[in-house]
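seq:
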Amino acid sequence: MVTIGMNYDVLPGKEEVFEGACKKVLEVMNDADGHGESQIFRRVDQDDSAQYLITSRWQDETAFNTFIASEQFKKVTSWGLKNVLAGRPSHTTYQES
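struct:
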């Protein structure tokens, strides 16, 4: 198993829109081959922060890469960049031993 950390900076005032879109993406991820579970977290130690982290467990990194290469994921990413994100998201892979 691997855990992927997906970091997002959201435009001010777009938090609810982003969270709604994330809920839909998480539903899609639940049906993806090799997906275990995912959770979304919001930074709460800064009142003006709109930073989010999605942690996602996958059978392996190949399963995650297949998912993010899907047309469905590309569409939502393009929409996010145009409408709610302050920049490109960053992903970090955490290998489990």
